[in-house]
Amino acid sequence: MCFLDACCKVDPNWLKVIDNLIDQNYRLIAGHFKVQPFDSSLRSLVHPLLYLNNRKNYKKKFGFPAGNLIVQKNLFDQIGLFPDDQISGNDIIWTKMAIDIGTKHIYDPNCIVDYPGHKWDSLKEKVKKYGMGSRYHYHNTPRSKINAFLPLRLSTFMDALDYRGLRNIPLSQKLRLYLLTWQIKWIYYRGL
Known about the structure:
The chain is an alpha+beta fold. The protein is about 50% helix and about 15% strand. The protein has 10 helices and 5 strands. The protein starts with a strand and ends with a helix.
């Protein structure tokens, strides 16, 4: 089964890549989101820096968003359907359950979809929703309350810049972007 967001446009080789991975017996395949900035402002880079990073999700054994996800149908028989008790993040919860039971999974950077980036105001609303959906993970722990006030780890920020090909932007832009990501992170944690 293939899951795509309605706003996505698949790469011409998308099906070929998936077919090859299915032949290698992967039961859960997460693809790459090529996020298209909505304009040339730094604000348009915040969404792709903070979200839709399946390389990071794969390395850290997190769950995957369903916007570019391929799932072997019988996994639903094994695990059940996506949980429906959260406002947001049910896809992440379900794929994390699949990973935790040892499902053969992969992130493939060649399984590409173009994804339109969010404008600043719409990103803030989406992030509030993400935060409310994350209550499942954090349960309003003291750690989540403290995290709300802390900026991203610098290593996390630099990895996100690398992932999106932005490592060489000027230092002044990096600093402004870092502050913008902190602002969005604060909005996210407010939703918890």
